[in-house]
UniProtKB/TrEMBL annotation:
PROSITE patterns: HTH_ARSR_2. Keywords: DNA-binding, Transcription, Transcription regulation. SMART domains: HTH_ARSR (SM00418). InterPro entries: ArsR-like_HTH, HTH_ArsR_DNA-bd_dom, HTH_MetalResp_TranReg, WH-like_DNA-bd_sf, WH_DNA-bd_sf. Residues 7-101 form the HTH arsR-type domain. It holds the Pfam family HTH_5. One of its GO terms (molecular function) is DNA binding. The lineage of its organism: Bacteria, Pseudomonadati, Spirochaetota, Spirochaetia, Spirochaetales. This is ArsR family transcriptional regulator. It comes from the Bacteria.
Amino acid sequence: MENKCNCPEELVEGYARKLKVCGHPLRLKMLCLIERQDCCVSELWQCLDQPQPVISQHLAVLKDKGIVDSATEGNKRIYRIVDPFVQNIIAGFDGILPEKSSQ
């Protein structure tokens, strides 16, 4: 029987691991915020109403898995999504998430 699977096993396994990491509700919210605008830890914990150590822990997981990276700008560490697979998924939320309100 011919193998008609279009998705190589190693790709599927890698994507499944990334989806599992991103599937945590708080991490998903963080990724949505980071996608809209590169953020630092203080912006994330204020927006998400979570303690700074909680946000830092989740960012460490995302960074360890290669989903986000950070760069120092002044006295802030700014986070960006660097994984193209995750970036495409989060960017796809644009049509279903409410617009960011300007204050």
